[in-house]
Amino acid sequence: MSAERTLVLIKPDGVSRALSGTILSRVEAKGYTLVDLKMVSATRAMLEEHYEEHVGKPFFEPLVEFMLSGPIVAAIFEGERVIEGFRSLAGATEPTAAAPGTIRGDLGRDWGLKVQQNLVHGSDSAESAQREMGIWFA
Ligand code: RTP
Ligand code: MG
Predict the structure, then answer these.
(1) How many angstroms is it from 100 CA to the middle of ligand 2?
(2) 134: which of 5, 76, 95, 122 is 20 to 30 A away, CA to CA?
(3) Are 27 and 77 in contact (CB under 8 A)?
(4) Separation between Cα atoms, residue 95 and residue 71, nearest integer Å
(5) How many Å apart are CA 55 and CA 58, to the nearest integer?
(6) pLDDT tens digit string along 41-94?
(7) Which of these is catalytic: 121, 122, 129, 132?
(8) Domain range summary for the chain, segments of one domain joined by +
(9) What is the ipTM for the molecules in this complex?
(10) Does residue 54 have an active-site annotation?
(11) pLDDT tens digits along 11-30
């Protein structure tokens, strides 16, 4: 079986808080291989495609505004079961609820902030990974 790939984003809060290196090194330390990396200023069109399952939800507009608020680091990581493995490393969506030891649990802050400021994104399935890699590494 060929190694799986996932799309990881370090959201604008992670970049502005200077956590890009720390986050990438946690993923590398787990044993996943960094296969592509870039800094991107997202467009609304990219975000509407990336978050297509959330279009129309109450948090969609604030989420897009946040994702447009600064540069994003996009990465592709490869490894066995990396999709599930990265989501375990990232932790639960809300930083307060995310377990200690996870990226969001250790480094995320949602007090006084919106839940969208949770540092990272990781693809949630092989289909999502394929689709999202096409958006961010077109
Ligand atoms: P992600 O897609 O970023 O890896 O995060 P996730 O799977 O844990 O969360 P998901 O449900 O896919 O939501 C995507 C992003 O939308 C923001 N969000 N805000 N109620 C809210 O205000 C709310 N719910 C979700 C978060 O930034 C979440 O990561
Ligand atoms: Mg998601």
Answers:
(1) 20
(2) 95
(3) yes
(4) 21
(5) 9
(6) 999 999 999 999 999 999 999 999 999 999 999 999 999 999 999 999 999 999
(7) 121
(8) 4-136
(9) 0.89
(10) no
(11) 999 999 999 999 999 999 99
Q: Which two tokens stand for residue 62?
A: 């604030």
Atom of ligand 1 nearest to the CA of 121: 4
41: Cα separation from own chain's centroid:
14
Measure 116 CA to ligand 1 centroid, in angstroms: 6
Nearest ligand by distance to the CA of 98:
1
CATH 3.30.1300.10, applies to 4-136: no
**CA–CA separation, 85 vs 53, rounded Å?**
22
Cα–Cα distance between 43 and 86 in angstroms, integer? 25
d(CA 73, CA 16) in angstroms, rounded, equals 11
Is 93 marked as a binding-site residue? yes
Candidates 13, 55, 116: which one to mutate for ligand 1, based on the most atoms within 8 Å of Cβ?
A: 116
Secondary structure class of 7 (helix, strand, coil): strand
